[in-house]
Amino acid sequence: MTYQVNIDTSPIQSKSDLPICREVLGRRIDNLYTREAISRILAPGRRHVAFLNAHCANVASQDDMYAAALERADMVLSDGIGVEMAAKMQGSRIRENLNGTDFVPKLLIEAAKRGQSVYLLGGKPGTADAAAMELQRRIPGLQVAGTRDGYNGAEDRSAVKAINQSGAKILLVAMGVPLQELWIDRNFDGLKAKVCISVGGLFDFLAGNVSRAPVWVRQARAEWVWRLMMEPRRMAKRYLVGNLTFLARAAVWPYLQSSAERKTKRGLDIVLSAGALLALGPVLLVIMALIRLESKGSPIFKQVRVGENGRRFTLYKLRSMAMDSEEKRAALLATSDRDGVCFKSKADPRITRIGRFIRRYSLDELPQIFNVLKGDMSIVGPRPALPEEVAAYPEKAKGRLAVKPGLTGIWQVSGRADIGFDQMIDMDLAYVRSRTLLLDAVLIMATFRAVLTGRGAY
């Protein structure tokens, strides 16, 4: 009997007016439909795929190494009704529940059609073998390149060597949270498999070690109740204490994000930007006059940028380039000195003489004080990106849009344009996850040193 799976291929339509959820309790998710996720996972390139459910979020809140591994994963898919409920509490929505037990076999059906082999790592001795046999029974044509248990067989060096020698394109790792994500994160660079996926209890279900809930229970979104009934002693802490803890955190999360701390941050933005405007107003006027003397045209440059939750706004800067700079930008993209989608060139011919000076000391950013006063930006936050840059973002990078962009931030004080795109994203996501008023104060103080040294400013 073959494994029958119906994958919807109809045009994707919104099921709600709520915005698409991009994070749950500060954890990034790639909110996709099944067919979108399969297409992206099997696209050219390498990727680590993880899942986020209530238990994962609870563990990540207490385990910094696991939380960092999730941030570094290329894709994090939503798993379970808990994540869906948390998204609704945040005023957003989950497109589809992509729990690994159902999703991974669907992915392997498509992989089999493309002739891509799979390697199974994890479980007690014999479990991966039994799971592989069941997958091949259900999915005709599926190539299993090898199996290895998650105990003695999981030793990093020998396991990586065996997996690479097998030629497998897809690696499934079933060691439980957080061991499986940490194993992939630790060994990803040494693996040749194109796709590495942490799959939790999938092997146990396939091997018959654990009974799967009946279809009607799954359709009622109550599979966790079934697992609790099957293994009450082992699952009580996870599903009773854990789920209640997760939902309690989800219930208060929106209030924490719009709490007195958020209002205080806005108040500080207003006070600091107003004070800066009073103190630096004369300097701003002098620079504007110098710009106007060197080249014709307005000394203020306006540009559409993308802010919090993808909202577009007009950003103000002192013009540091010739008036026709935007028309010449496309021709200069190949000269970028920076990896990734954000263009930066040390020898940009469009920059004027006064422009190089004000860029060196970040004086070109002064008009953004008005953006802060308007509420488009904050003093501290990720730098606002161009719409075309956001359009080219990998899903992971979109997490930086969860907060207002800022005049300064971790990236700005760490080297600015000398920092590569991927590292910049990691820094921005770290800020989004850990932002506090104390961190903002530290970054503001560090900004003065960064401005004076001029590192990465060009």
From TrEMBL:
Transmembrane in keyword set: yes
InterPro entries named among the record's database cross-references: Bact_transf, WecG_TagA_CpsF
Single GO molecular function: phosphotransferase activity, for other substituted phosphate groups
Keyword Metal-binding: no
EC number(s) reported in the record: 2.-.-.-
Coiled-coil region list: none
GO biological process, one term: polysaccharide biosynthetic process
Key words of the record: Exopolysaccharide synthesis, Membrane, Transferase, Transmembrane, Transmembrane helix
Pfam families in UniProt: Bac_transf, Glyco_tran_WecG
Ranges where the Bacterial sugar transferase domain occurs: 265-452
Transmembrane segments: 239-256, 268-291
Family: Belongs to the bacterial sugar transferase family.
PANTHER family: COLANIC BIOSYNTHESIS UDP-GLUCOSE LIPID CARRIER TRANSFERASE, SLL5057 PROTEIN
UniProt protein name: Putative sugar transferase EpsL
Source organism of the structure: Cognatishimia activa
